[in-house]
Structures are given as C-alpha cells and as structure tokens.
Amino acid sequence: MNGRFITFEGIDGAGKSTHIEWFAQQVRARGVEVVVTREPGGTPLAERLRGLLLTEPMSVEAETLLMFAARREHLLALIRPALARGAWVVCDRFTDSTYAYQGSGRGVPTDRIAELERWVHGDLQPHRTYLFDLPADLAAQRRADARAADRFEGEDIAFFERVRNGYRARVDASPGRFVVIDAREPIDNIKKLLQDSILSI
Ligand code: TMP
Hints:
By secondary structure, the chain is α/β, with parallel strands linked by helices. It has one domain: Rossmann fold.
C-alpha cells in the first residue's frame, strides 16, 4: 500500500468541508493522484445507507452498525484500491466520527466501537487526521444559516459538546496522527497551516 489516507474531522459547522477540495488541489499540484470522498458514503450502497442514517429514526446500535457497514463497503470498493495504486485518499470523516458521535455523543461503549473497528479495518488507520475544533455554541451559530438540519445537525449543544470532547479524547489517544486546527482562525491561516503540513504526511 503506497498511498496516503487522510481524514478530516470535526463537529457539524466547524468548517472542514470548506477546506477539503482546496487541500486536495494542493496535493494534486504535486503530481499525485487524489481521491476525495466522504463518510458515511463514497459508494452507491454506502450513499444509500447515508440517506437512511441522516433521516430515519433508529436505535443507536443500528446507527453504529450501519456506519460500519457503509465503511466496510467504502473500504473495499474505493479506499483500499485507491491506496493500493498509490493515490492519496482524502476522506470527509471516518472512524473518529463514530467514536465521537456514537460513542461520546450517544453513549455507545468505546470497547464496542473498538471491536467493530478491528473487524472492519484493523490493519488500516489514517496516516493523518485534521481535526477542526470549534466550541459547540459557535458551530451551532454557523449551522443556523445552513441547509435544513438532518438527524445529527438537529441535536442540541450539549450533544455537540460531548462530541467535541470525544474528539479530544481521540487526539489524546493518538497525538501523532492528528493536526488540531482552531476553526475560529481566518480561512487563509487555516489554508497556510494545511499547506505547510503536507510535507510531513
Ligand atoms: P457530514 O454532514 O459531515 O457529511 O456527516 C454526516 C453526519 O454523520 C454528521 O452529522 C456526523 C455523522 N456521522 C456519525 O455520526 N458517525 C460516523 O461514523 C460518521 C462517519 C458520520
């Protein structure tokens, strides 16, 4: 496996999606193939699961399992083949989201998530994860202007505070993998930080 697997994470409204395509262009400019994708989603089946996950009321267990079902499809059909041919895969969310949202946000025990993680991608972790960190109340203000809220975006501030803390616990567990970005910084500062960080991936 010669490629690089890079993930972008953060609570809804932190602004990660604004930067992903730009980041991909910077890497492409170095002559590398870049595949931009997202979770849940990235394959026809996983996109259908995404539709259910974002709209359909369901148990927290079903939600967690469907996230990993979509992930397994995504890994087999898109992520692994791309990495195998040497591409860089830039993914909007991955398993850190499950620890943060289903784990810290909804209360699924961490060891359950770890078990599913081992089953689904025990041998593959992102080489680099950019965490867009923003206080939950500021993220809620940013979301207020956006499109109609889905099943996650409609959660209250306390939920997103737990999710944010969940992300911080992920950083503490694997500090070498993360670059934490203060999402209150001006966009140009964030771009510079991303640009400067590419060489160390
Ligand atoms: P997005 O709006 O950033 O594309 O993500 C869709 C939603 O799915 C977002 O609110 C976070 C949520 N999500 C989880 O709860 N667990 C996961 O494992 C993933 C990948 C996303």
